[in-house]
Design a protein that fits this description.
437 residues; alpha/beta; Urease, subunit C, domain 1; TIM Barrel; 38% helix; binds guanine; binds zinc ion; Metallo-dep_hydrolases; Guanine_deaminase
């Protein structure tokens, strides 16, 4: 039996960085007909109710019905060390991250943290994660097993490191290739899952390992490749020492076949002009991780400078990021842009967290917007979830003015319902919507 979701539908038919508010489609009395995991129809509540009398109706009242959020860069193994105090990137990795990632040799622990990550992110309205795992193949199995059990579209890869990481957290060029290939063949294209070839970043891979992963990518060009690029100045200086022949940081990937249209680079804050030109030329994507960039003290991403030239996604980057919420992440993106003298419109923020991230992951034809044929990943967002938000939203004269207080001050309390692949997967905390047969 089809499901009919009622509320204020909000989606995009274009990119609001190009066409402004006109890119958005908003129906204050909208409806989404969901059947067999996909959106069958979009329309007005009156029309779709009349034409689908047998559908189960889920009435979300004044809540905004949007595509689920897409977090384009997260480290699920860092869930338990989010908000660890007082370090910058390299010290933070050595002090907090590497000891925690060591624990993922234990498959049970990996399963428990993967489950916890999905519980937390679904509660925040995120229906797709693109995650780094650890060097342990078990951690990839744990992530995909938990995603599969929930019916989620999800992406991840084994994080490869064969130097500058502690004993117990290093693979080799050959084992990184072999393990990645085996995991890719097992998971890529299974249900809604995609494997992503994942060298952590150039400082923790030898040239041999980068070359091996470049060769693997050439064998499976429809996979994405994800890594980190130019996050902190100390890191960039270190890369220069480790790769004296490279023209710049991006070149340490490019030289080994790790730059292409399916490449997704996290952070990309301190880019040289050549790097920007080359990313644009090759059709690669970059991912803005604003809470992480301020939490670890990395710098101010140049959204206005990069957005017109290349695909840009938005992400929490937890545990470097300080929140699981894409609402909080939009707020941080807004604040960082303000510090650069740029103002991001609420339509642009919402687009980045949905369609923009989906496009950065080359999944824009499946998730990130609401339209017939798209996979039914839908969230219902309450625009009056706390007294502070409600009293501000009450004064709003436009949708954007009503949405912005939730972007700036909202959290998981604003997420009233979550649908993934056409199923209601709302975590237990929220009261269910009334179901009328
Ligand atoms: N650079 C290399 N590894 C990491 C990581 O785990 N988090 C962040 N923020 N940056 C990195
Ligand atoms: Zn990261």
């Amino acid at each position: 039996m089809p499901d009919l979701l009622l509320g204020q539908t909000l989606t995009f038919t274009a990119d609001p960085f190009e066409t402004g508010e006109a890119a958005a489609r908003h129906d204050p009395h909208g409806a989404i007909l969901v059947e067999d995991g996909r959106i069958a129809e979009m329309g007005t509540a009156t029309d779709l109710r009349a034409r689908n009398p047998a559908a189960r109706v889920h009435d979300y009242g004044r809540a905004v019905l949007s595509a689920g959020f897409v977090d384009a860069h997260i480290h699920f193994p860092q869930t338990a060390i989010i908000a660890s105090w007082g370090k910058r990137l390299i010290d933070w990795l050595n002090t907090y991250t590497f000891p925690e990632e060591m624990r993922f040799a234990d498959a049970d622990y990996a399963r428990r943290i993967a489950a916890r990550t999905f519980d937390l992110t679904l509660a925040n309205g995120t229906t797709t994660l693109c995650s780094y795992a650890t060097i342990h193949p078990e951690s990839v199995d744990a992530f995909f097993t938990e995603a599969q059990a929930r019916g989620l579209r999800a992406l991840a890869g084994k994080t490869c490191m064969d130097r500058n990481a502690p004993e117990g957290l290093r693979d080799t060029a050959q084992s990184a290739y072999d393990d990645s290939k085996r995991l890719l063949e097992r998971w890529h294209g299974t249900d809604r899952l995609s494997y992503v070839i994942t060298p952590r970043f150039s400082p923790t891979s030898t040239p041999e390992q980068l070359a091996a992963l470049g060769a693997l990518w050439a064998e499976y060009p429809d996979c994405l490749m994800q890594t980190h690029l130019s996050e902190q100045l100390d890191e960039i200086a270190w890369v220069r020492d480790l790769f004296p022949q490279a023209r710049d940081y991006l070149d340490t990937y490019e030289a080994f076949g790790l730059l292409g249209a399916g490449a997704v680079f996290g952070h990309a804050i301190h880019l040289e002009p050549r790097e920007k030109d080359r990313l644009a030329e090759m059709g690669a994507a970059v991912v803005h991780c604003p809470t992480s960039n301020s939490f670890i003290g990395s710098g101010l991403f140049d959204l206005a400078g990069l957005k017109g030239r290349m695909r840009v996604g938005l992400a929490t980057d937890t545990g470097g990021g300080s929140s699981f919420s894409m609402l909080r992440t939009m707020a941080a993106a807004y604040e960082i842009a303000q510090l650069r003298g740029q103002a991001i419109h609420p339509a642009q923020l919402w687009w980045l967290a949905t369609a923009g991230s989906a496009q950065a992951l080359r999944l824009g034809d499946r998730i990130g917007t609401l339209a017939p044929g798209m996979e039914a990943d839908v969230i219902a967002v309450d625009l009056a979830s706390t007294p502070a938000i409600a009293q501000r939203a009450e004064r709003a004269e436009t949708l954007w003015e009503a949405l912005f207080p939730t972007i700036m001050m909202g959290d998981d309390r604003a997420i009233r319902a979550v649908w993934a692949g056409g199923r209601d997967v709302t975590p237990a905390k929220a009261p269910p919507a009334p179901v009328r047969e």
